[in-house]
Every structure is written in C-alpha cells, then in structure tokens.
Design brief:
The strands form 6 sheets. Strands 7-6-3-8 form a 4-stranded antiparallel beta sheet. A 4-stranded antiparallel beta sheet has the order 11-10-9-13. Strand 6 and strand 7 form a beta hairpin. By secondary structure, it is of the alpha+beta class. Helix 3 packs across helix 17 and helix 9 crosses helix 10. It folds into 2 domains: 193 residues, v583 fold (Alpha-Beta Complex); 213 residues, Enterococcus faecalis V583 domain (Enterococcus faecalis V583 fold). The radius of gyration is 25 Å and the shape is globular.
Length: 475
C-alpha cells in the first residue's frame, strides 16, 4: 500500500475533532457518566438487553411473517370492542353456577396452594351459602376436595382480589355490541373488612346478604328500566377526570350513579331501601371498578384466537400464581410466582403483613388503563406510592411494550395520546420491560382484609413461558 493510498483511506477521519463531538451511550450508565466527567455532552439511549434465555425463541417469533398483521388485528379488535351494562343477575342464573362450585380470581388453583386471603374468601363463601356453620367446618370441607374451584376467566368473567363468586351472589352483565361477547363481574362490597380481601367475620356475611336481598334486585330493576349503559364511554370520561380505572374510580362511580339514579327513584323501591342503596354506592369510590374490569375483559376477549399474535389478552393473579394468556396460544396459561406489591400501608400494617399479588383486576392494565394510565390520575401516587413524575414515566414506558394507542381512551396530560394498548410478549422479552400494575394489597393471613395499596410487576416467567410457546407454535 502506498503513502497516497493510506492518506486516501484516512481522509474520512479528517476534521473529526474540529467541532464538538456528538456522543451517544447505551447500556450501563457508567459510560455516560465517564463522558460527562470530561465536560462533554452525551445522549443516553434507553436500551435494555433481552430477557436472559429468550434469544432463540424471541428470534423465531420476531421472524414470524404473521406477527405484524396478527398484532394489528388484535389491536383493532381490542380498541373497537364496546361495553354496555345490560343486566344485573344472580350468578346462579347468569352463569348456571350450582351449589358446591365457587369461582375465583387468577389462573387455576387448588385449596392446598391457596393463599391466606383466598382461603378466607372461600371460607366466607361457604358461610354465606349456608354450606358450613363455622370457619373450621368450612375449611375441612374445602380441604376435602368436595368443593369445585374454577377461575372466573374460564367463565368469561372477572373478580377483584380473591374474586370468589358463589351461586347466590349477584353480578353485573356487560355486552360488547361490536363483537357480540358477554362478560360479567361481581358487585363491589366497598373497602375494609370485605370478602374479596379474605375477611369472613359476621359483618361481611351480613353485607353479602343485604347485597343479594336488596342491592342486586334494586340495580336489576334500575338497569333494565334505563336500558344499556355505555360503560366504554364512562371509561373514556373518567380518564379525563382524574381516574385511571383500577385504583381510582371516583369519577366513574359518580357518573354511573348519575345514569341509574333516575330509574332507581322510579321503579318502586321502598324509600328506606332506596336511601341505603344510594348511600352504599355513593360512599364507595371503587364501585365502578367492577364495571371497568369486565369492560377490559371484553376488550381482551375480542382479540382471542388470532394465530401468530403475540398480544396478551389476560393478566390475572390468584395470590399464589400470576398468569397470562395470549391471542395466539388459545386458553393456555403461562404462570410464575406472584410478586408482592410495594407501596403504602394502612395503620400499623407493614410489608410483612402483605400477601403476594392477587386478583383479576390486572385485566385493566391488559386493556391499557389502570397502571398503564397512571398519567391520567397523578393523585393515585398518594395511594400506591411514588410521585407525579413516576406516574408520567410509567405511562410513557408502557408505549414501548404495546401495539398501539387507543383511539377513545386518552391521556390529557400527554397531549391526549391514546392509552397504550396490546401488550406484546415479544417486546417485553426484547426490552426486559415488564407491565406496570397498581393494586390493592390483601393481608397475608385469612380474615385480615386490606392492608395497603402499591405497585407490582408480573414475574418474568410468564413472558418467557409465553415466548417459548409462541415459538413452538411458529414451528
């Protein structure tokens, strides 16, 4: 090589240091910090390595020619799914639920693996149904295997926290007029010592009796007289009014009460019962949660059964396991040990009192609100921890692992961007970024009730299991 040739090849480097260098850094922050220490500017790229061990499966799924169109279809179905409240009925009538069968939150579970709050809720259901006279008798019957336990999701419904539903309990019935699906959820009991948090003292049983004898029939008359109530529209409005639809539902509850109140006052309900019903709903900010959850379930149901899709259609927890299901893998569950939320505690309770994550309410994040829409409800940080900047960052980060932005459910403070919808298993595995969930915390011991509220992520095993199954489906 001649000197002329060498000079020619070196020419592109001429002038490299004649101006301020533009430096970008990815990965460990120590590189960017080293550059800054030398008084140079640096741009940090938000890059994360893929989840360990997912490389071959992830490469197979990312190369699947069906994936892009399949995920676009899943997003289109989820974002166009409607939700109308059409009835309120007993679970025995709505679901054909018979004596001796109880439904619960999360993936499938047996009594021997049930957590404290799940056991407490099942004991309470036994007492409520008159199938046991004491908690000890209820435990013996449940441990014997004589009682059938099935997930709410296997019956196309959802239940908050323990999510236990027995035949005599009443449920909301919601319908998607776009895709023709139907979903349901139990009625909300309020806060404190309630069945869904695992409490089963006499006041809990008495409240459930009143809900079945008074609240359920009153709401049935009012909803039937009012006609279908657009809950999808209520979700859109509550996101504009400071709710995020999972742990903050104040605006949604009051909007729904406004819709049914005229009929409640005109269907002949005795005045003393009417005042009880209105007071019960009006004093329970979370009443609308049991409407937003089946609304989110309808969105997920609309995307089920799309070959090649890596979009998550279900996230659910039973207090022992966290499970997900995807549009492209049918009814299969991919599970891992449920993590324990971190956040704020009630009274003298602390981290040692909290049970691992529990409940079907993560279906709200599956549909794009709840923890995914924390930016719409900065006040939520007062309940679950963090600060306003964290709430904004949490929502922004979820766009990285989702398929699109909802055309109706929007985030005002982010210039009315649609909430992030359609969690993509491949994007989760590629970035290592896990879905953000905000949730209530149940006491680890049966009978305690709620001990706080906080933030939690799914276990990584859910997504590594799903990506392996999706890769096998490609093969």
């Amino acid at each position: 090589m001649t000197a002329t040739d060498s000079a020619s090849q070196a020419m592109p480097l001429r002038g490299l240091l004649a101006s301020e260098p533009q430096i970008a850094a990815a990965g460990a922050p120590m590189f960017a910090e080293a550059v800054r220490s030398q008084a140079a500017s640096v741009t940090e790229l938000d890059w994360r390595p893929p989840i360990d061990g997912t490389g071959p499966a992830l490469a197979t799924v990312m190369a699947d020619a069906r994936r892009e169109a399949a995920n676009a279809l899943a997003f289109e179905r989820m974002s166009t799914a409607g939700s109308e409240l059409v009835d309120v009925r007993p679970a025995s009538e709505m679901l054909g639920l018979t004596r001796g069968t109880f439904l619960h939150a999360g993936p499938p579970l047996t009594w021997d693996r049930a957590s404290g709050p799940m056991r407490g809720a099942l004991i309470g259901a036994m007492l409520f149904e008159g199938m046991a006279d004491t908690a000890q008798e209820a435990e013996r019957e449940l441990a014997s295997g004589a009682i059938t336990l099935e997930p709410c999701h296997h019956h196309r419904g959802v239940g908050p926290m323990a999510g236990v539903v027995s035949p005599s309990m009443w449920v909301f019935e919601l319908r998607d007029p776009t895709h023709g699906n139907t979903s349901w959820c139990s009625l909300n009991e309020g806060l404190g010592k309630v069945l869904r948090y695992g409490a089963y003292e006499q006041s809990v049983i008495d409240r459930l009796g009143w809900m079945s004898a008074v609240l359920g029939p009153a709401l049935q008359q009012a909803v039937r007289a009012t006609g279908p109530i657009d809950v999808k529209g209520i979700v859109a409005q509550m996101l504009q009014m400071g709710d995020e639809g999972h742990n903050r539902n104040r605006a949604g509850t009051l909007m729904w009460l406004r819709d049914v109140l005229p009929a409640l006052t005109n269907v002949g309900i005795p005045s003393d019962q009417l005042s009880e019903v209105v007071r019960f709903i009006g004093s329970n900010d979370h009443f609308a949660l049991n409407l937003t959850m089946p609304t989110a379930k309808l969105a997920g149901m609309a995307a089920e059964g799309i070959p090649g899709s890596t979009v998550v259609v279900t996230m659910a927890r039973n207090g022992t396991d966290f499970g997900i299901r995807t549009a492209g893998t049918g009814d299969a569950w991919f599970t891992g040990p449920a993590n324990t939320p971190e956040g704020l505690f009630l009274g003298s309770y602390g981290p040692e009192d909290a049970n691992p994550d529990i409940g079907d309410s993560a279906i709200t994040e599956t549909a794009g609100f709840g923890g995914f829409a924390m930016a719409t409800a900065p006040a939520i940080v007062k309940l679950v921890g963090g600060d306003v900047q964290f709430a904004l960052a949490a929502t922004r980060s979820m766009y990285e692992i989702t398929t699109g932005e909802h055309p109706v459910w929007q985030v005002p403070i982010l210039e009315f961007r649609g909430v992030p919808v359609g969690i993509d298993v491949a994007k989760v595995c590629r970035t290592g970024l896990l879905p953000q969930i905000n949730t209530g915390m149940a006491g680890a011991q049966a009978g305690v009730g709620q001990v706080g509220a906080g933030l939690v992520n799914p276990p990584v095993e859910c997504f590594t299991g799903a990506i392996e199954a999706l890769a096998a489906e490609v093969g």
